[in-house]
Structure to design on (246 residues):
């Protein structure tokens, strides 16, 4: 801030950035190392440790009901209902409100929306706030299924991107369809349900049995998605419009 007030700041700006960025990184690393060596685990572990924390669900979510031979917990039913409610809310907001119309307009043609008087920066902020709120709701719902830690969301990042790409960017229906397809396909391959159905083709059955676990099923689904995108790069439900067609 002090250097920006100097009249020759623009002339020394590039040189200043080259010096200050490595210097700030070195200072931050030195302070972190000093705190870690001086106070050891007493200071660093509560804030930067990798320990997971369990979240206790309310009493009315700890039970379940029988569905044939299966036990369906109330927690998963609650997450399903919450997901449907969020989907309906987002759909109504994007399709039935003025700001939803502005968001769709900016997504399709940003320059023309700006020419028509739509505050694109405010739309960007609102879109980011909406996405952050949905991510927060998803995180709260996910905490009911297991312990929470620094790496909790890493298991879902790849699946999230695959859902968006396969369904089509900006398409809510595509997101729902792609999520169901990828989830069901992951389960069918990982649980080794498909291989008994193709016993008449031993080579294919052995191939599916090789991928019959959670990790390899994700690899198989990822390979199928890559193959699918070679033929449909815009996803299942591509956007339509003059800007997209051009």
């Amino acid at each position: 801030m002090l250097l920006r007030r100097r009249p020759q700041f623009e002339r020394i700006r590039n040189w200043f950035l080259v010096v200050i960025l490595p210097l700030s990184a070195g200072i931050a690393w030195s302070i972190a190392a000093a705190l870690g060596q001086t106070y050891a685990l007493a200071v660093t572990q509560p804030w930067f440790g990798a320990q997971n924390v369990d979240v206790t669900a309310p009493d009315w979510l700890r039970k379940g009901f029988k569905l044939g031979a299966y036990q369906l917990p109330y927690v998963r039913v609650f997450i399903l209902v919450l997901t449907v409610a969020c989907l309906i809310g987002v759909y109504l907001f994007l399709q039935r409100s003025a700001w939803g119309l502005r968001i769709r307009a900016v997504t399709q043609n940003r320059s023309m929306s700006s020419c028509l008087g739509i505050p694109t920066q405010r739309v960007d902020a609102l879109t980011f706030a909406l996405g952050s709120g949905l991510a927060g709701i998803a995180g709260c719902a996910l905490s009911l299924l297991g312990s929470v830690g620094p790496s909790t969301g890493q298991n879902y990042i790849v699946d999230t991107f695959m859902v968006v790409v396969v369904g089509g960017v900006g398409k809510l229906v595509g997101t729902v369809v792609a999520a169901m397809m990828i989830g069901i396909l992951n389960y069918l391959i990982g649980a080794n349900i498909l291989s008994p159905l193709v016993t008449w083709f031993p080579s294919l059955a052995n191939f599916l049995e090789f991928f019959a676990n959670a990790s390899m099923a994700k690899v198989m689904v990822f390979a199928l998605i890559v193959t699918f995108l070679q033929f449909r790069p815009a996803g299942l439900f591509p956007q339509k419009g003059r800007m997209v067609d051009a």
In short: The chain has a mean pLDDT of 81.
